[in-house]
C-alpha cells in the first residue's frame, strides 16, 4: 500500500452544499506528502482496519480524543492587516470620516518596517489561533511592508493572499499616505507581484500576490486601468471594496454615472479571481454581472453594522448565483474570529427578515426569505471562501488541502454544554458556542501551525 504522510482518525464536519453539512463519522483521513487529502476512508470500508493496523503506532497517526472534532480551516476573505493595530477601537465615525481620522493615519505608520513586523507577526498568529488558515489581506501602500506580510505568512505557515494597496488619487488620499504618483504605484505593484510569486516557491501552502485598488475613490482611472492590465498579465487575484456605503456608492455614481460593479468591470477588474468586499448596495444587474464574470463577494457582517448601515441579502444573492465568502474586515469589524462573523451573519439575516422596527405593521417590517442558517454561515466561512478564491480549500474532501482545525468540546476552561446530542446538534453548538480556547490544533497543507497546550 502507498505510504501516507499523515493519517487522522475522527469525526469531521464539512459542507456538502450551501445549505447542507456532511458528517464524516469516525473516518480515516489520509494525507499525502503535498499536504493534500488523498483518501477518505469510512469505517465500513474493507481497508479501514488494515490502515489503522499499519499506522497506529507511527508518529504520523493522529487519533482524535473523545470530544474532539475536525472542521475545515476558515477562509477569511477580507482583512486589513495594518488595522489590527486599532482593532476594537475607533468605531464611532462613518466610513469617510473613519478613514481620514483614524485609519489612514495608522496605516501610514507602516513605512516603519519594525512596527509593521510587530503588528503583522501578532496578527497572523492570532488568526491562526482562531482557526483561520487562509486569509485575503490588504496591506498598505508601502511595498516593503507588504512583502514583509507575505513573508510572515510564509514563515508561520498560513496561506496568505496579500495586496499592496494602491491609492494614487490626490483628491481623495492624504499627502502623507498615498502612492507617489500613478506610474510609481503601478511599477511598485508589479515589483510586489514578482517578489511574492518568487517567495511562494519556498512555501508548501502557497502565498499569493493580489492586485489591490483600495476602492474607486482612492484611485485614478489610469491606475485602475493599469491594475486591470497587471492582473491579466500575471494572472493574479484582484480585491477591492465595492458598493459599501451611501457615501462611497454615491461618489462612484457622481464620477462614472454608474455603479461600482460596472465601473470596475470597465477596467478589467471583475473576473473569476476577483473578490469584492461588502457589496451591500449591489443592485440586481450588478449581481448578475458578478455572477457572469465569476466575481465573488466577501461578506463582512460585523463591519456592515458599523459602516454600511445595511445587511447584505445573502440568500437573495445566492439565488442569483453569486459566490460569497466571509470576511472579518479587521478593523471595520472588531473581531478576528470567523466564528463571531458566522454568528453575526445569521443574526443580521434574521434582522433583515424580521425587520427592526416593532412599531411598523408586521407585514411591512422586513424582507421575506432573508434568513440564513448556521449551516449556510459555515459554508460562507469555509467552502464559499475556497470557491471565491478558486483554490482547493475549505472542504474536507479528496483532493482538497489538509487545512483543518481540531475543536475540543471538553476542555475545562471552555467546555461546551453537550449531553448526548446528535452529531448535527454537536456541530451547531460548536458553531454557536466555541471560543478560541476550544481550538486545539490548526493544520495548513499538512503542517501543524498552531497548538494550544
Ligand atoms: N473602504 C476603503 N477603505 C476601507 C477600509 O479600510 N475599510 C472599510 N471597511 N472600507 C473601506
Ligand atoms: Fe475593508
Automatic annotation (TrEMBL):
Family: Belongs to the metallo-dependent hydrolases superfamily. ATZ/TRZ family.
Reported cofactor(s): Zn(2+)
Catalyzed chemical reaction(s): guanine + H2O + H(+) = xanthine + NH4(+)
Function noted in UniProt: Catalyzes the hydrolytic deamination of guanine, producing xanthine and ammonia.
UniProt KW keywords: Hydrolase, Metal-binding, Zinc
GO process terms (BP): guanine catabolic process
Gene Ontology cellular component terms for the protein in this record: cytosol
Gene Ontology molecular function terms on file: guanine deaminase activity; zinc ion binding
Keyword field contains Hydrolase: yes
Its EC number(s): 3.5.4.3
NCBIfam families the record matches: guan_deamin
Protein name as annotated: Guanine deaminase
Domain Amidohydrolase-related: 69-449
Comment on bound cofactor: Binds 1 zinc ion per subunit.
Pathway: Purine metabolism; guanine degradation; xanthine from guanine: step 1/1
